């Protein structure tokens, strides 16, 4: 149950046997059903989740009441609204399960214990924050600089196989187009055998 999260952390920093045992003691396991929420808009995000199995979507509701999907989380991903988690402010977005899922969660307090109790714990935190920052900047830049087709190609590269697990209207929301536009993009790409 804990091997996946240990492996994800070891992909960033080395861990010894005692540190692995310490880390597993800090996480709690929970099952979620499809359509359940890990976090709702207006709540304070009090934990980071690690997805052992399943799928989530991140979305916000705009002024017109429409959902704007901006990210996904899948197996072996950490999930969180980091701005809410870090400064304890109400979340402006939602994290909802798109499949029945199994999650390991760590609270803000226990994450601080991890940073302090693991030799390279602080380094782990810094590297994760750097990765999140780079990802956010690239995503923002893509919204302004890339065409919808380029954003769809990036979606396929970042989330291989995911287009078969989710409704296409979620993909179109993520790419920033209406479903008919996504269908046209996919037809053009299929005719050029891009994917």
From TrEMBL:
Keywords: Kinase, Transferase. Residues 15-114 form the Cyclic nucleotide-binding domain. It comes from the Bacteria. Signal peptide: none annotated. One of its GO terms (molecular function) is kinase activity. It holds the Pfam family cNMP_binding. SUPFAM superfamilies: cAMP-binding domain-like (SSF51206). Transmembrane segments: none annotated. InterPro entries: cNMP-bd_dom, cNMP-bd_dom_sf, RmlC-like_jellyroll. This is cAMP-binding domain of CRP or a regulatory subunit of cAMP-dependent protein kinases.
């Amino acid at each position: 149950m804990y091997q996946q999260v240990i492996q994800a952390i070891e992909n960033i920093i080395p861990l010894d046997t005692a540190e692995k045992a310490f880390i597993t003691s800090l996480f709690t396991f929970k099952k979620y059903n499809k359509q359940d929420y890990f976090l709702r808009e207006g709540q304070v995000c009090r934990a980071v989740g690690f997805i052992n199995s399943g799928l989530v979507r991140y979305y916000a509701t705009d002024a017109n009441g429409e959902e704007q999907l901006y990210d996904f989380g899948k197996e072996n991903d950490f999930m969180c609204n980091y701005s809410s988690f870090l400064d304890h402010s109400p979340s402006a977005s939602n994290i909802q399960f798109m499949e029945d899922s199994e999650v390991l969660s760590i609270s803000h307090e226990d994450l601080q214990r991890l940073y302090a109790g693991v030799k390279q714990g602080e380094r782990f935190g810094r590297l994760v924050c750097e990765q999140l920052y780079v990802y956010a900047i690239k995503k923002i830049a893509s919204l302004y600089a890339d065409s919808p087709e380029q954003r769809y190609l990036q979606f396929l590269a970042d989330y291989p196989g995911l287009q078969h697990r989710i409704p296409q209207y979620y993909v179109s929301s993520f790419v920033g187009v209406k479903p008919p536009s996504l269908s046209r993009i996919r037809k053009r790409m299929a005719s050029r055998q891009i994917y």
